[in-house]
Specification:
The protein has six helices and no strands. The protein is mainly alpha-helical. It is elongated.
Length: 171
């Protein structure tokens, strides 16, 4: 018979914090949150920082299209699949390609498709889409570099704790 502590130990955060990688689903969720946050920043830049004129309804409609196209871009190029602590130029290129593909899909939707299927409510203004692309690309790259830096800090602190030992009598 297992005790209560043995049963809940499989849900312990220490189990997950000791791993040397971050789950791809966590990275995908954080990526989508950063993209949604960059959309808020884009709206505030365009509306000259007047948050009282900020329409949540307009934001949520634009957010649906941005997140949908971001998911398609992430599915195609899989920038969330790399082990983030080993971020390299290759991973940053995948983020760039995924965001560029998503941006081009969004532009195609804004300029061509939205009017034909009467979905103009879900189309972002062109300037907001452009600003969102650059801000989200910057945030996603910086997020990966920051996580890599944090992992390297932890790695360096573990290396400092090691002491050199000489073993006599070997051989």
């Amino acid at each position: 018979m297992r005790t209560f502590f043995q049963m809940i130990s499989k849900y312990s955060p220490n189990k997950y914090l000791g791993r040397n990688f971050v789950s791809k689903w966590v990275i995908l969720s954080i990526d989508l949150l950063l993209i949604a946050g960059s959309l808020i920043i884009s709206y505030t830049i365009i509306q000259h920082q007047h948050l009282d004129s900020f329409s949540l309804k307009e934001y949520y409609k634009g957010l649906l299209s941005v997140v949908a196209f971001a998911l398609v871009g992430h599915y195609m190029f899989k920038p969330h699949r790399g082990i983030i602590r080993h971020t390299s130029l290759h991973d940053i290129k995948r983020v760039f390609f995924a965001r560029t593909f998503s941006f081009l899909l969004n532009l195609l939707f804004i300029l061509v498709i939205a009017e034909k299927i009467s979905a103009n409510d879900f189309a972002l203004p062109f300037t907001i889409a452009c600003i969102n692309y650059f801000i989200s690309l910057y945030l996603l790259v910086q997020f990966r570099l920051a996580v890599k830096y944090i992992f390297n800090l932890g790695k360096r602190s573990k290396e400092r704790e090691k002491a050199k030992v000489i073993i006599y009598g070997a051989g």
